[in-house]
Amino acid sequence: MAADNKDHFGIYVHWPYCLAKCPYCDFNSHVARAQIDEARFKAAYVREIAHMAELSGSRKVTSVFFGGGTPSLMSAALVGDILHRISQHWGIAEGAEITLEANPTSVEAKRFAGYRAAGVNRLSVGIQALNDADLKALGRMHDVDEALDAFKLAQQTFARVSFDLIYARPQQTVTQWCEELARALKYADDHMSLYQLTIEPKTAFFDLYARGKLTIPDDDLATELYDVTQELTEAAGLNNYEISNHAGSNAQSQHNLTYWRYHDYAGIGPGAHSRLTIGNKKTALHHHTDPKKWLAEVAANGHGIAVQEKLSRAEQGQEFLLMGLRLQEGIDLNRYSAIAKKPLDGEAVSFLAEEGFIELFDCHRLRATLKGRRVLNSVIERLAE
Question: Which helix (H) or strand (E) holds 146?
Fold first, then answer.
């Protein structure tokens, strides 16, 4: 059952650089054209951590997530320094989840032991495909054998490891995906993030798609791929606790649950986002996305925040729905009413329930059904009217 614990507090640390830009990626990632000055980044992270701690007030950190970009390009020393500063300013709870995203190239895999020594206790490994041709098309810099070797090394090094894949890829059939997922499930026994490929604006895939040079599964095939994904993972004991995430018992990503349960978190680094309660007001903060701009702003002002705005009750309610209805545990209707200062529209709830898109349970909880999760954006749009 849900744990809407107000004491959950996460820290997200963004590393903005990659060796190459994947054609499907719309994240704030950049290809470094020169040697990265880690000492300068360390100084900036240290200053911004101090500033964000002042904004958030006294909190105990329950999770830290190093994302990117490609955080496995960071030195273990830098990761350790950042964790030390987080501990100094906030304190890290006993048993806190400390995750780092990693690419499974052999070069990056050699850093795993160093990350473990620095304090990381969970690795999210971006394998993305178990097909060499598709890996190449996705712009990945590893092959299948290299990826699986890196994943096995990660399992030997860390107590918890996530196996991350992309499906609904160009020309992919249901049979192909079933075979690939079945192979992956022989390795993954803790957590899997399984994302349907989406074509995002300002990506290389978007340009190809717009010119008719890239074909992806249509809606019917995408739905079939989603459904078989649920069937195979559930049969393997990895339950679908969130639309794209599957976990064994007690293996859910605690950091991501902080987002989805709409708790506070502080973002550090270029392009990072935060949701902090400041003076009893839920506040959205967005940091400068360009690494050079962010570095300059931190040097000048002690932080790289570009936007800081208080969220209205309506905005908070909508965000709560957007996050919480991704979860199998759904949302607490009483908590929604407390956040939005109004209950959900009864007519919308009744209509969606009668049509089989949502269901009410445990007296005061609501969740999307499998049918509803397939069209979740439309469900949320109707509830948020």
Answer: helix 144-157
Angle at 101 between CA 95 and CA 107, to 5 degrees: 120
Domain enclosing residue 128, as ranges: 9-259
Q: Report CA-CA distances (Å) from 247 to 63, 73, 131, 164, 323.
A: 17, 27, 23, 12, 18
Whether the bond between 114 and the residue before it is cis, its omega within 30 degrees of 0, is no
pLDDT tens sequence across 149-174: 999 999 999 999 999 999 999 999 99
Same domain, 232 and 364: no
Residue 87 belongs to some domain of the structure: yes
- Is 302 within a domain? no
Rounded CA-CA distance 122/99 in Å is: 5
Same domain, 114 and 21: yes
252: nearest Cα among 380, 62, 87: 62
> Do 255 and 367 belong to one domain?
no
In a domain, 294, yes or no: no
The whole model's pTM is what? Answer: 0.94
Mean pLDDT of 239-262: 96
30 forms beta bridges with 17
Query: Which residues make beta-bridge pairs with 242?
Result: 245, 327
Residue 280 or residue 115, greater confidence: 115
CA distances from 113 to 116, 118, 119, 158, 361 (A): 5, 9, 10, 9, 45
Residue 292 falls inside a structural domain:
no
Number of structural domains in the chain: 2
The encoded tokens of residue 330 equal 């759904």
